[in-house]
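Try this one yourself first.
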């Protein structure tokens, strides 16, 4: 009996192997398994959005076909592949939601170009494409998420008003576990390009992100309340932060990322809301940042309503090209006079290392360590920092408050006295 089952499974695996590449019927039903128990392992089915009625003419709203294809993929067994072929699809707000109980993994094969509907009244929330509550999703392909943000940017009041309405994020991942995102492009998002909220075990690589340097709040990749996130080998040029690490994150690694234009790699802003969780364990390594407002910035609000902490962060082997503030800790953040008072920030910063940071600063102050008077920074280390002014002549400067940093190796600009 046992041997029988084993043979059966073997035969099935062999079968799948032999027919690998054959397109399995659109809706994944009626595959003639008869009354045999459906195997959870080894089976696979492909769900092509075109088989669910997507037109891909760039003019017809294909949202429903995408959601129907997702529902079928999510409701299947084994490995499910959602195929978005090479074509241009006009898409309104769509949610790809799990849990997908019987699938082992979902592959989103992203070959097409998705264009976001431009009419803002069609968006009930601040999402365009959202993936949520799925375990084991892989999104791979050379496809594009084009937010068509240019017409929306003028209606974004967030740069001047703290109580602004948020425009839709291009691609949001919410409460996802074991996610891989590889090769995709995000263009001209209305708001953030990619956002991770409460994700666990996320690997992003080969991601290309592009929007004009003056587009508002078009952060490249925003990460919040997430754990074990690994972002590598990606190119991000946008109007706001290249990568922003918000509150509640732990074990975040960023390597081999190229940034610019934009605001650079940012931790924060932290300390705006009362219920924020700590940030613990960030490594940013082997990155190149060019023509941005900031290089590495850690930013916390003045007058923060509660205390929190950000600790254990290492920034290593970073090349800065013509960056206005290559290294900046700013704990007095309070844009457009939106805080009730300038009471010191209650975000505690500690165990932060900057190692081998080289290149040029476009402003005279290349290193700013502006820590909180209420909770001074602790254990800040600078090792081998060499930042010249882009326009030659004088030497770059450092500026420090409420911190006694430790210095080793090369130090240009010279350390704070
Ligand atoms: C510091 O961060 C690193 C990298 O995320 C992590 O491996 C390590 O466990 C953290 N250390 C502490 C004390 O949390």
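Now uncover the answer:
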């Amino acid at each position: 009996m046992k041997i029988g089952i084993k043979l059966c499974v073997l035969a099935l695996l062999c079968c799948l192997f032999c027919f690998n590449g054959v397109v399995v019927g659109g809706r994944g039903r009626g595959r003639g398994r008869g009354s045999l128990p459906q195997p959870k392992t080894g089976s696979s089915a492909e769900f092509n959005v075109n088989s669910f009625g997507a037109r891909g003419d760039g003019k017809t709203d294909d949202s429903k076909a995408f959601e129907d294809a997702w529902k079928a993929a999510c409701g299947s067994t084994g490995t499910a592949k959602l195929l978005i072929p090479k074509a241009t699809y006009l898409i309104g707000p769509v949610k790809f939601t799990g849990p997908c109980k019987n699938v082992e993994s979902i592959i989103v094969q992203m070959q097409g170009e998705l264009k976001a509907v431009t009419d803002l009244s069609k968006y009930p929330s601040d999402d365009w494409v959202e993936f949520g509550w799925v375990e084991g999703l892989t999104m791979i392909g050379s496809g594009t998420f084009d937010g068509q943000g240019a017409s929306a940017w003028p209606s974004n009041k967030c740069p001047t008003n703290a109580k602004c309405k948020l425009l839709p994020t291009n691609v949001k991942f919410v409460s996802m576990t074991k996610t891989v995102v590889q090769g995709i492009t995000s263009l001209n998002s209305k708001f953030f390009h990619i956002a991770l909220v409460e994700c666990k075990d996320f690997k992003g690589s080969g991601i290309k992100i592009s929007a004009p340097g003056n587009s508002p709040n078009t952060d490249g990749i925003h990460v919040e309340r997430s754990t074990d996130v690994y972002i590598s080998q990606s190119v991000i040029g946008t109007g706001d932060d290249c990568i922003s690490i918000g509150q509640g994150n732990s074990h975040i690694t960023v390597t081999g990322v190229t940034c610019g234009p934009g605001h650079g790699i940012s931790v924060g802003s932290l300390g705006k809301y009362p219920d924020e969780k700590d940030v613990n364990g960030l490594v940013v390594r082997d990155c190149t940042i060019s023509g941005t407002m900031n290089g590495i910035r850690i930013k916390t609000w003045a007058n923060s309503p509660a205390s929190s902490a950000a600790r254990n962060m290492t920034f290593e082997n970073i090349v800065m090209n013509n960056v206005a503030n290559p290294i900046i800790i700013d704990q007095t953040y309070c844009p457009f006079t939106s805080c009730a008072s300038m009471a010191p920030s209650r975000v505690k910063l500690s165990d932060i290392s900057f190692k081998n940071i080289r290149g040029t600063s476009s402003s005279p102050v290349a290193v700013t360590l502006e820590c909180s008077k209420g909770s001074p920074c602790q254990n800040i280390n600078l090792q081998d920092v060499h930042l010249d002014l882009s326009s030659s002549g004088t030497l770059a400067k450092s500026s420090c408050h409420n911190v006694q940093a430790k210095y080793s190796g090369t130090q240009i600009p010279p350390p704070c006295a």
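Discussion: Confidence is low (pLDDT under 50) at residues 1-39. Helices lie at 2-18, 63-74.
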